[in-house]
Amino acid sequence: MTTRTITSHSILIPLTQLSACLVVLGFRVALGITLRPWYAFDQGADDRLLVDQASGAAGLGYGYTLAKNQGYAMLLRTAHVLRIDVVTLNLLTLITAAGLAALAAWAASRRLWPASLAWIGVLCWPASMDDWLGLRVYRNTVFFPAMIALIALCALLIVCTWRLGSDKERLHAGWTVGAALSAIAAGGLAAWLQTLKEDMIWLIPGLLVVLMATGLAAARHGLAKSIRLAVAVMCILSVSVGALGMVTAKQYMQSRYGVAYLNMRTEGPVAGFIKRMTVIDAPGRTDDVWAPPQAIRQAFDAADALDQYPEIERWMLSDHGYGQPLKGDFVGWQLFNAISNSGLGWSNPAGVSDLFDHANDQIDHAFEAGSLKRAAGFKPIPSLPAIDAGEVPDLVRRASLDWLHAWMPGDLFTPSKPATDGYFQLRPMPLGRFYGMEYLGIDPGNPLPQPLPWLTHDRARDWSMALNRIWTPVALIMLIVLLAAPVVAVARRRRTGWLPVMLAFAAWTIAAYGWAYCMATAWFAGWLHSARIEFFYTAGLVAPLIGTACLMALCALIASMSIRHGNRE
């Protein structure tokens, strides 16, 4: 009788978990095909630019062509070739990420419940249905699934590499194949992420830690040489694939545009000129105005190489585009506009790059000679504005709020645009919108269909808002678990050993890594004075780190409460 009861439970619990996963999948697919992506055809520096990059409409003479990385355009182009519309693309990326997260959780724990939690958590994160962060045809929509996939692949690489030599005498074929596939996929995805957004270099420290954790598998005592060699091969393989991906992307830019820069607004001499303008000490500098008019004049006065195009300076000091004084990052966009509207133009990016290279040398000489003075303030990297020590507390506060909002969107969550919004209407329908929608697989004659008769767009919006409300208390409980796990693990160390302790503190480290990115983003975006925009910048990249940390902390907490696998001292 007892045996029958145990067997029933052992079958019922997994079936319940699998059923819940299937229900959540159906729910998410229903919402995904009803809450349609919208295409901001009028955003020439953002959504429209990336779609034009994908379709080839952004020609060499178009000033913004090289103003943003082209990773998202590569994804859209691939989907177009495969005849995958943007609705299906969004769902496929999210479901693939959820599947990889579940697989990694199962491989690491050999338990179904962590895999189920990972699957449900990825599919139910409310911001994946946010109007800007989940439903806009823009690169930010893929940040969340791409980061989830990268974390999962890195976890699989570590787990498979440690287990491929589990018997210490010979390689385990299954884990070896898994490690090789994970290494290739992780390296390729990491390279693509570098082409997706300008600041993805922040991932490098985390990826180096992953390589160290993978390589430590070879340091175990008594391993056969073949196993140590296999571990080394896995590390080299992932790095090689990532490096090859980056070289390929640079070579593509070199062959297509004549410059090996993913983005000339943040890389190369033009970006260098922008950064030099923002460090010149001049009247009018504030936290919001990085390059006041006087600093711009001083930069052009020092850069004699630009004298042949005086209209660039005139445009920089004009009210065209972003007004005066230029706030924050607008100084870079204003320079791109100025070059576009000058005799220099963007038809020869290599020539533009060479000209500004000379201009930068002249500005550097002016700094060395003392005719230009650098502004005071702490500035750890060139792309961030200088700040004073007194501004740090507010920066820490905003970074902490951004970190919390990434995990719990709360009031920052904005549901899908209503059906009456202009982006879903047949008017206006300029050619740019028409061809862009066709390229994305959106029917211009019916931008907002109702695929499921029983689920209207308004009802789906209500469901997404309800999910956001449900998510908040659950996410809060997981944060409490994250805080409590190290304390409990240390307190019960004599009963359960060091593994829960290490797991809990590793979770804290991952969560802190996400906070560091929030810190950098809050530092950069402070001039915008918008918590919503900071959420837009950070949530898709930081939420996967927090979610991973919370799941690890939960596993550590449960392990700490167990005595069966204890290591009594």
From TrEMBL:
What domain of life is recorded for the organism?
A: Bacteria
Q: Which UniProt keywords apply?
A: Membrane, Transmembrane, Transmembrane helix
Any transmembrane segments, and where? Answer: 12-31, 86-105, 141-162, 174-194, 200-219, 226-247, 470-491, 503-529, 535-559
Protein name, per record: Transmembrane protein
Species of the source? Bifidobacterium margollesii
Organism lineage string: Bacteria, Bacillati, Actinomycetota, Actinomycetes, Bifidobacteriales
